[in-house]
Design brief:
CATH architecture of the largest domain: 2-Layer Sandwich
Distance between the termini: 116 Å
Largest sheet: 7 strands, antiparallel
Number of helices: 13
CATH superfamily of the largest domain: Histidine kinase-like ATPase, C-terminal domain
Number of domains: 4
């Protein structure tokens, strides 16, 4: 009879514990529903115990609150007095040697009891060997609190990641070219969104493959993966391509590969589609290769949102590049059409003359007349050769010119070019005014600088009428020197001025003047090859001003 009474009392005690636990659970639910701070009292409860006396020598605040003792009373008590010794044989824990793990019913001084899990092992603390006790309340209330706190923490982290995603989107939207955009999608996903490893793959629907762009290597650095390709036929990726699903693919025990496609370890892997409307532009993958952190509940959703953001920016970059490519193609077609038209005209006239003279040469007997015809043919051949030479020269200047830079006084350059034009200048009665500070010097290739200045001066001489004026000035800019040539010639309208530096372009489209049409284009190419520029101003009927700007002599390398 007494045994039955004892069992009944024990059962009543258990029910009282359950009732108190339920009351605390209800209080916790209400507290959480009202937005209470779930992080309070959630720190780890720790005791430090002397291994010989079994007395408590230190405890943290969380342990004091959990056990229900003030520090002054708890320090010096033994684990037996605290009633936290195992009531059942201890179980070895895999965490560390000599560790003990057990669960018991603990009763606080206020009479409240609950399940307590005790985990302890020896450690070195302040050059002293002690036993480290880790205490965890195992009640339903405590487990619920831990779960609510975990979810609240993950929710907080997810909010932080969404804020970071907004910042990443802003940064990526400033990048226009597709390839740098793909690089930064991976780089910012790792650095700002906190993903371990990322890989960005673009869909090639014609071959049913994913083509690599950039990814993360084993050391966490961003690497180019443009040479990597994998077929998705028969895989779950086909559901993205078909548009039957958009949910992330999550693999918890997935093989993780190194750069040699060797399985190094196993971990989680998440794959999401790059969705633009109903189209799948590719996939974005993430894993925990580098740090091995467990998968957070919010990470697949965060990666999915990032994939949508990346897809829209990738499609925008592709559209821009296609538009640029189309404009370039159209521009090249127009330039080629005009080039063929201009070159055809410039070649057709000499060839026609050559053809006529060659025909007459077969029928003329007089040696003097034959010599005149041969001389005329040679002149036309020379003109064709000049056109070809200038075309090749312009191509060389625009691609990879060889420059031998040296200090060149501006006055000496101008005088050298003027001396080559003196006969034409004298024949037209032109007045040349020089306004150049003798201290001005440029850093340039001598022959190229002379050539560019010659083209500018020759243009001024050609279009300035008899008794006109040409003014040559030196202009000092910060780290640059300008050589300005102003004429009182015919000038140009706005349309002609806009195109005056184009190869083969001439304002005189009727070809009434003998001018191959490469001179100013060559002068511009020479200036830009030096890191300089060429400027032009003109008013129809009032003259033109051309100015070549070159680096000053202080920028020259030491001899």
């Amino acid at each position: 009879m007494s045994d039955e009474i004892d069992k009944l009392r024990q059962r009543i005690t258990e029910l009282e514990v359950i009732a108190r636990d339920y009351t605390r659970v209800q209080q916790l639910v209400d507290y959480a529903a009202q937005g209470g701070d779930l992080t309070r009292s959630m720190s780890l409860s720790v005791l430090y115990v002397d291994p010989f006396t079994q007395q408590v020598i230190d405890a943290n605040d969380a342990a004091l609150e959990l056990l229900g003792y003030p520090r002054s009373r708890l320090i010096g008590m033994t684990v037996d007095q605290l009633a936290i010794s195992p009531s059942t044989p201890p179980v070895h824990s895999p965490e560390a040697d000599y560790a003990r793990l057990y669960t018991l019913t603990y009763q606080r001084p206020d009479g409240h009891d609950f399940l307590l899990t005790v985990d302890h092992w020896p450690i070195e603390r302040e050059d002293r060997r002690v036993v480290y006790y880790r205490l965890t309340e195992s009640s339903l209330h405590r487990r619920l609190w831990h779960e609510l706190q975990r979810r609240e923490t993950e929710g907080f982290h997810f909010q932080q990641k969404l804020t970071a995603l907004n910042e990443v989107t802003v940064q990526l939207s400033r990048i226009e070219p597709l390839d740098p955009l793909c690089h930064q999608i991976v780089a910012l996903g790792v650095s700002l969104l906190g993903f371990d490893r990322l890989g960005l793959w673009l869909n090639d629907p014609d071959h049913a493959v994913m083509r690599g762009t950039y990814g993360t290597d084993e050391q966490g650095s961003i690497r180019a993966e443009h040479d990597q390709v994998w077929h998705y036929t028969g895989s779950q990726i086909e559901s993205y391509i078909a548009g039957t699903t958009t949910t992330p693919l999550v693999f918890t025990e997935s093989p993780l590969y190194n750069h040699k496609c060797e399985i190094v370890r196993y971990g989680w892997n998440v794959i999401v589609p790059l969705l633009y409307g109903s189209r799948c532009l590719g996939v974005l993958s993430a894993d925990n290769f580098t740090h091995g952190h467990p998968l957070q509940d919010y990470e697949p959703e965060l990666l999915r949102l990032y994939g949508i953001t990346a897809a829209h920016l990738i499609e925008l970059a592709r559209t821009r590049e296609q538009a640029v490519t189309l404009r370039v193609a159209q521009g090249r077609t127009g330039m080629l059409r005009e080039f063929i038209t201009n070159v055809g005209h410039d070649f057709r006239t000499p060839l026609s003359v050559i053809n006529t003279k060659a025909y007459l040469l077969q029928r003329v007997i007089d040696p003097g007349d034959r010599a005149a015809l041969v001389n005329s043919i040679n002149q036309q051949v020379k003109q064709l050769g000049d056109i070809v030479d200038r075309m090749l020269e312009l191509v060389t200047l625009q691609s990879n010119p060889t420059l031998h830079r040296e200090r060149l006084p501006v006055t000496a350059l101008v005088n050298l070019v003027l001396s080559a034009q003196r006969n034409v200048i004298a024949a037209k009665g032109l007045h040349v005014d020089l306004h150049i500070n003798p201290t001005l010097s440029v850093c340039a290739d001598h022959d190229h600088a002379v050539r560019a200045l010659h083209e500018i001066l020759e243009n001024a001489v050609q279009y300035t009428p008899h008794e006109g004026t040409i003014r040559i000035e030196g202009v000092a800019y910060p780290q640059e020197i300008g050589i300005r040539v102003r004429d009182s010639g015919t000038g140009m309208d706005a349309a002609t001025l806009k195109r005056v530096f184009e190869p083969l372009y001439r304002g005189d489209q009727a070809r009434t003047e003998r001018n191959i049409g490469f001179g100013l284009a060559i002068a511009k190419a020479i200036a830009e090859a030096h890191g300089g520029r060429i400027l032009a101003e003109s008013t129809l009927g009032q003259g033109s001003t051309f100015e070549i700007v070159l680096p000053e002599d202080r920028t020259c390398p030491l001899p």
